[in-house]
Amino acid sequence: MREFEWAEWVLARFTDSDRAVSIVGDLLESHLQRGLLWFWLSFIGILLSLNRRRLAAFFVALVCFRFLRGLPMPVFAPLHGMPPADQPPEVWGVWRNFVVLGWIGMLLWVVTPYALLRYGVRDRLGQLALAFCVPITASIFGWRVPACVDTSSVLVLIIFISSLTHARWRRPLLVVVAALIVGYAGIQAAICLADFYLYRVCTSISVAWCVNESLPILGAAILTFACGWMHHRLLQRGALAEIPR
Question: What is the pTM of this model?
Answer without folding.
Answer: 0.73
